[in-house]
Design a protein that fits this description.
The protein is built from two helices and no strands. By secondary structure, the protein is an all-alpha fold. The protein has a single domain, classed as Helix Hairpins. Helix 1 packs antiparallel against helix 2.
Length: 146
């Protein structure tokens, strides 16, 4: 491999590693947003389950507090729903950025692999040419002896 080709291959490798680091950074950001989304969704689901399970009062004493309790839980559910709605566009945008970064990384990987394949073919072609030349030299030598 010539020094120019070696430099080019190292450059492709370096760019590919940089792109991989970008993908990992974006993936961590998306994972953090997804984790926050999941936590809010789980908390909202738990509150809705509490409403379904705790909305029945057997005594008169608890009936006066039940309305405020249910309003409080519903307000919290609405707050969580609002937060989830705010996070969802950020999550979609992060996932799209991740897809784009992965595609970009893959482009450089494909370029590097294609260049490696081309260099191997060139090396094999050069080696075949060299072997053909050696065979011709040996044949001429053998023919000149006769």
């Amino acid at each position: 491999m010539t020094t120019d080709a070696a430099r080019r291959m190292r450059a492709f490798g370096t760019i590919e590693r940089i792109k991989r680091l970008d993908v990992e950074r974006i993936a961590q950001q998306v994972a953090a947003v997804r984790s926050r989304h999941l936590a809010l969704s789980n908390e909202r689901r738990d509150l809705l389950a509490r409403i379904a399970g705790e909305s029945h009062v057997t005594g008169v004493e608890g009936a006066t507090y039940l309305g405020r309790y249910l309003r409080s839980i519903r307000a919290e559910v609405e707050r969580l729903s609002s937060e989830i709605a705010q996070i969802e566009p950020e999550l979609r945008q992060g996932e799209e950025s991740l897809r784009a970064a992965l595609a970009d990384e893959k482009t450089y990987e494909v370029l590097r692999l294609a260049r490696m394949t081309q260099l191997r073919r060139d090396r094999a072609r050069h080696e075949a040419t060299r072997q053909d030349e050696m065979a011709r030299i040996l044949w001429y030598r053998a023919a000149s002896r006769d």
